[in-house]
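Support case: GLP complex. Customer-provided input:
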Amino acid sequence: MKIEVFDDQKILHRRAALVIAAELTTKSAPVLGLATGGTPVATYQELIRLHREEGLSFAHVRSFNLDEYVGISYEHPESYHAFMKRQLFDSVDIPDDAWQVPDPNNSEMLARPSLYDELIEAAGGIDLQLLGLGNNGHVAFNEPADSFSEWTTRVALTESTILANSRFFDSPDEVPREALSMGIASIMRARKILLLACGESKAKAVKAMVQGEISAQCPASVLRLHRDVTILLDRDAAMLLEA
Ligand code: GLP
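Agent response - structure generated as follows:
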């Protein structure tokens, strides 16, 4: 794991955007794995700036998002489909049919979520997977558990995730209880992984991911077994790490 700690979040997001941009400029058909949540928003803003001001093109990109809530439609503003349109895809030149999120409204995918992994595979596999980190150490919606889920699957969200994500909804009651989420194997197959974590609320999860035992109780800890992972942290998220 390469770990970089930043005093200034703006520089952290610029660095993240440049890692993503490097995939776009060096590959003829890059496949991205993208993430939702509050953390990557500033990275997406920087990518939009690079597109508008420096000619970074997404015309040749394929993108697969990590996860999607079950039980709300794509039109719901907090669906991850709507999030990605609003935060990135409506503002860059990616073709409409070149990006997708797991689709709980597709009955075939809901019945057999690993269909999503087959689509990723058919596209050539993910070159760069962007990840956030849950307060409880989750990645995508792989919640702490007794064993790692492998491929894309239907998952129940934990109370702590429902509470953390309730800030995007009017009340915790409105947060969907389930999601379709890429599994740990789906994520570990990516050729390169970039994880971003900011703020004190992530400090415990960062410590467990980097210096705790590798365990399904902290799903992100498994990333230590991947050979090309970069972690970008701000000072607060890094505060519990021992040198
Ligand atoms: C959500 C998403 C994750 C995301 C995490 C952290 O539950 N499913 O993919 O990484 O929460 O979100 P945030 O960046 O808002 O802290």
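The first strand starts at residue 2 and ends at 6.

Case will auto-close in a few days if no follow-up is received.
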